[in-house]
Specification:
Helix content: 25-40%
Low-confidence stretches: none
Mean pLDDT: 92
Shape: globular
Number of strands: 17
Structural class: alpha/beta
Number of helices: 14
Distance between the termini: 90 Å
């Protein structure tokens, strides 16, 4: 690929700023300065969700916003880390963090960087290219991020949240009226590792697909547990990095070969699913959960292109244990398979109560199990997911016990149970971020109700219309009739 046209991208960023001014969204701040509080809003996470949230807040005229991220600059989000796919899972790119502003869209960026003909010929978006775009978006939208700042604790206070941070060499606290959590997987408890693996193997013999180095396993034989997209992505990445062999194990007799969520893919569902009654949302999400996630064709083809790839169907694991310097896997059939290392592609936890910074009040957070009758087994992940309000705010398990939860807006992975689709995915941004921004703006407006009423009810001034504008047309005091 050719080098992107830096001058064209600079011009495009300037055009975006002009576009914002043209539609009156240049960032004028209407929110009252918080008295004795450091910020109106703190956004934790500067991946695409956090950046979109910060951009949306600015466009809505909400100032006093600070964005922090635990990663170093350029390492935010998943695109240069946990994501292993070679191309995005959507054809081209749906509307993303630009929130309706065409000059900040991926297409505008790509055409400026590489040309309109190159965009027309692009079959799908390479993951690294999307990461480059997100970096440019952050700069073009002038979103300031404090990097290498990690949230350790959220401490509720009267009228505010005290946030405890740690960064290299220091710990510090700041206060905010609103908190937006845009940490993706981390906010839901992190990767899920089955007990069979966690208890059966020492940590140096396994890793989750969310965090492992394919290059470190060059020349090794790797067993991958799981048969969804992330498992196949991991297999492909391992083989491309030089793994000698990769064995992928599925407990099903065949791979899932279709998406149960395909009927969901229309604008009305994205925009309004959250408005359905709880029972309806629960029934739909349980339906999705009971049907295995299918691996996309490019991910399967990426793995099967290598001679060292082997797919094991109807092969649940009965046990796994150290064997020599590697591992021995015992299948449900009783057969055994030896490998040097295990990678688990078994998904993620979904419980916001497991997010370490929420430890002070975790039991107060409502989960779906507090709202609907749930069953054991495969529904447990859905049941543990946070039950969110219409503006993605956390909700109290016991009404009145923790009102401050309404000031924490959760844009994490497990918000999916409340909204119907993964929160933080590219396609979710155009629907979810404006709704969260509107809720934050409403709450801040109502919180400053007295100040706004005073402004509304203030005496009317006399400077908007100078008397000179109409003085020359004033009629004489004596009215002369036509008869006279």
């Amino acid at each position: 690929m050719t080098t992107p046209d830096a001058e064209a991208l600079t011009r495009l960023a300037a055009e975006a700023r002009r576009d914002l001014a043209r539609i009156g969204e240049g960032g004028a701040d209407w929110v009252q300065p918080p008295q004795g509080i450091d910020h109106n809003v703190v956004v934790v996470g500067a991946g695409q969700s956090g950046l979109a949230a910060a951009f949306g807040l600015r466009r809505a005229g909400i100032g006093g916003v600070s964005v922090v991220d635990a990663a170093a600059a350029g390492g935010e989000g998943i695109w240069r880390g946990a994501a292993r796919m070679s191309v995005l899972r959507t054809p081209k790119a749906p509307p993303g963090p630009e929130l309706g502003l065409p000059s900040l869209s991926f297409q505008a960026w790509y055409e400026a960087a590489y040309g309109a003909a190159a965009y027309a010929a692009l079959p799908a978006v390479p993951r690294e290219i999307w990461a480059d775009y997100v970096d440019w978006f952050r700069a073009a939208a002038a979103i300031e991020v404090r990097n290498r700042v990690s949230l350790e604790r959220v401490e509720p206070q009267e009228g505010a949240l005290r946030l405890h941070f740690v960064s290299p060499g220091r710990r510090f606290t700041e206060t905010t009226r609103k908190l937006v959590l845009a940490t993706g997987i981390a906010g839901s408890g992190g990767p899920f590792v089955p007990d069979l693996v966690r208890r059966g193997l020492p940590q140096h013999l396994y890793a989750h697909t969310h965090a492992f180095d394919p290059a470190a396993l060059k020349g090794r034989t790797v067993a991958v547990l799981g048969a969804a997209a992330s498992a196949f992505d991991a297999a492909g990445a391992l083989l491309e990095a030089g793994a000698r062999a990769v064995h992928l194990f599925s407990r099903g007799e065949d791979l899932a070969r279709g998406s149960a969520m395909k009927p969901f893919s229309f604008f009305g569902a994205w925009e309004h699913f959250h408005a359905l009654p709880d029972a309806d949302r629960w029934a739909v999400m349980r339906h999705f959960r009971r049907r295995a996630s299918f691996p996309p064709v490019p991910a399967v083809q990426r793995a099967t292109a290598h001679a060292g790839f082997r797919l094991h169907l109807d092969a649940p694991w009965r046990a796994v244990a150290p064997h020599g310097e590697g591992v021995r896997i015992t299948l449900g059939s009783g057969d055994t398979v030896d490998a040097d290392f295990v990678v688990v592609g078994t998904g993620y936890l979904a419980d916001a109560r497991l997010f370490a910074p929420f430890a002070d009040f975790a039991p107060a957070i409502a989960r779906w199990s507090d709202r609907v009758a749930t069953a054991a087994g495969e529904e447990e992940a859905l049941a543990a997911a946070p039950y969110l309000g219409l503006g993605f705010e956390l909700v109290e398990a016991q009404p009145g016990a923790a009102p401050f939860l309404a000031d924490i807006h959760f844009l994490g992975f497990s918000a999916m149970t409340s909204t119907g689709r993964p929160v933080g995915d590219i396609a979710s941004l155009r629907h979810n971020v404006p709704r969260a921004v509107a809720a934050i703006g409403r709450d801040l407006f109502l919180r400053d109700r007295s100040a706004h009423l005073a402004r509304f009810l203030a005496p009317v001034g006399t400077t908007d219309l100078p008397r000179e504008a109409y003085a020359g047309a004033l009629a004489a005091s004596a009215i002369v009739t036509a008869a006279e």
